[in-house]
């Protein structure tokens, strides 16, 4: 059963009411461009016995479709932090972001000082997502989604559904396209960088540049697959996170 958590329904909990004694960590997951909190249901299922797993639902999609999407990534990160703060307690907080969500998680970590930060499927912030720089129209967005093979093909060819999802997609792609890294304090927590070994979004040099954005204990893990490798390797990623939390 899905439960909304926190103000303005930014957060979703998909599994089990947490017992702080058995789930001593709050794990907050942030989805990719065009993605929704539900993307993390499988990861939540794997980790719900060891962590209180929360997924962020950005405005402008699914049950928040009537709210305007945020097309500035720095502003989106600030709004995520503002929504998180009342929902957090004394337990350590861990952030996990995929693709655009990795940038949001990184910027949120600069404000929140979490216990750990996981960034997935994303070049270093100082590099930006170069492959999205020239995607400025709807056709370009749809072509890009098809190429990444992470969105149901039927969804992308249904005019009625596209009318609902395109506003959020436009805002997300604009947020990534216009994102500019700003110099300042970096997250002081351990940083783990996860990628798919055939992901066109994450060339090796752009991934290794994450070394600029951590201050200690920076690790890199590559999994077989493309941009949405996480779909096929949820259990392996969950095992990695569970070992860290333990």
Automatic annotation (TrEMBL):
| InterPro entries assigned | AB_hydrolase_fold, TEII, TesA-like, Thioesterase
GO MF term list? hydrolase activity
Which parts of the sequence belong to the Thioesterase TesA-like domain?
A: 28-211
What the record says about family reads:
Belongs to the thioesterase family.
Organism encoding this protein: Streptomyces albidocamelliae
Extract the SUPFAM superfamilies matched here. Answer: alpha/beta-Hydrolases (SSF53474)
What the entry lists under Pfam families is as follows:
Thioesterase
Q: Which domain of life is it from?
A: Bacteria
- Full protein name: Alpha/beta fold hydrolase
For this UniProt record, give its keywords in alphabetical order, as a comma-separated list. Hydrolase
């Amino acid at each position: 059963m899905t439960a909304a958590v926190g103000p303005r329904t930014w957060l979703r909990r998909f599994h089990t009411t947490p017992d702080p004694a058995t789930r001593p960590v709050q794990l907050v997951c942030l989805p990719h461009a065009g993605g929704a909190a539900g993307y993390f249901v499988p990861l939540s299922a794997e980790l719900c016995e060891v962590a209180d797993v929360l997924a962020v639902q950005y405005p402008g999609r699914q049950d928040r479709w009537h709210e305007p999407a945020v097309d500035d990534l720095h502003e989106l990160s600030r709004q995520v932090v503002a929504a998180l703060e009342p929902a957090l307690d004394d337990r350590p907080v861990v952030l996990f972001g995929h693709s655009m969500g990795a940038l949001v998680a990184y910027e949120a970590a600069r404000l929140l000082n979490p216990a750990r930060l996981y960034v997935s499927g994303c070049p270093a912030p100082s590099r930006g997502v170069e492959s999205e720089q020239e995607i400025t129209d709807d056709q370009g967005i749809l072509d890009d989604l098809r190429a990444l093979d992470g969105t149901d093909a039927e969804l992308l060819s249904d005019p009625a559904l596209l009318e609902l999802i395109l506003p959020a997609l436009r805002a997300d792609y604009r947020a990534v396209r216009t994102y500019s890294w700003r110099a300042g304090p970096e997250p002081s927590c351990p940083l783990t960088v996860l990628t798919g070994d055939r992901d066109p979004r994450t060339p090796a040099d752009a991934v290794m540049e994450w070394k600029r954005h951590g201050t200690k204990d920076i690790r890199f893990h590559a999994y077989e697959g493309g941009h949405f490798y996480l779909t096929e390797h949820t259990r392996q990623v969950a095992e990695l996170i569970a070992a860290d939390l333990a």
